[in-house]
Amino acid sequence: MRGHLNKSYPAFFIRGLSGDYMDSDIFKDNDISFFDSRSNFNKRIPFKAYLLDGEMCGITKHTHDYMQIWYVCKGVCSHWINNNEHRMVKGDLFVIPPYVVHQMRKIKDEDVKIIGIEFSTEFVSSEYDDFTKNKGFFDFAYLEPFLVSKDMVKPKLVLSHEAQMEVEKLTMEMLKEYDSEERYYELYIKANLLKLLAVIAREYAKSPKDKESDEIFDKYRNAILNSIQYIKDNFTQDLHLDDVCKHSMMSKTYFCYVFKNLTGKTFTEFHTELRIQKALELLNTTDASITEICYSVGYNDVTHFCRTFKKQVGVSPRLYRKERAE
């Protein structure tokens, strides 16, 4: 069902709607459209996945009785909630609980790509299919950070680089399973959905809570993303924090703060991880000696390289290659 909220609606829609999740004022607004689970989900499971490539839906004020997650893979778009605009760029995500009014708008001349995930609570647990009556369960589960009143809904979440990679992987796998409907696709989707919610909840817990922090992230986010690419392109070189700060044109204090929050790692940790990952690749795919690999990934001292490798991987480079060969 899609329609204006002042019109008739099915009985299940009005059942048990006392509580923070439902704002009775939305019934009075003729311009708000309502989407219900029964007509939105047309497969055997109350779940939907889709890719918006250059297109945009939800451009009018609307609400729905199911959860909605949108992840921006590319470009820029505008998310309106509580009459405030929030620009979303690649790596941003939002989670909208049931009965919250919002809308999306495309930015002129911007090519945007979005993965959408929608699901009813019954898909997470059939015993808890009513948000308003069973919030106690979710206080200790995946959805608790997102089940808040309309004034507390987070309009966007800035994901760390590590979380971006995980979210893209999980959502693309769900999209593939949803489209293919291969045997046991429901289990694949549910497993990935639970993991996705856990990843988002973890990011939500460590995201900036105040306006000043949000402004810092918005201002320097692109600079940090460019710096990440710069590090990836030059990690085998004698790269220092000062070099990257100059490249990003940021002070060391701001750079370290925003970089850690976006990637979950310090510059040194991120740089080291790239080098060790490359060393693992070379150990697996070439016959190069440990010394040659040490120098090729940017280290000038074999002892230091082996010590760092063992700290990261758990075994020495020589033992790692031997075990992989066996």
Note down, in words, how this protein is organized.
The protein has 326 residues and is an alpha+beta fold. The chain has three domains: 2-207, Jelly Rolls; 213-264; 269-325, Homeodomain-like (Arc Repressor Mutant, subunit A, Orthogonal Bundle). 46% of the residues lie in helices and 17% in strands. It has 13 helices and eleven strands. The chain has helices at 11-14, 37-40, 121-124, 135-138, 161-180, 185-206, 211-234, 241-248, 252-263, 267-285, 290-296, 302-313, 317-325, and strands spanning 2-4, 33-35, 47-53, 62-64, 67-74, 76-81, 84-89, 92-96, 102-106, 113-119, 157-158. The strands form three sheets. It has a five-stranded antiparallel sheet. A three-stranded mixed sheet has the order 1-2-4. The protein has a three-stranded antiparallel sheet with strand order 7-6-9, with no helix packed on it. Helix 7 (211-234) crosses helix 9. The longest helix has 24 residues, at 211-234. The radius of gyration is 23 Å and the shape is globular.
Features:
326 residues; alpha+beta; 5-stranded antiparallel sheet; 3-stranded mixed sheet; 13 helices; 11 strands; disordered N terminus
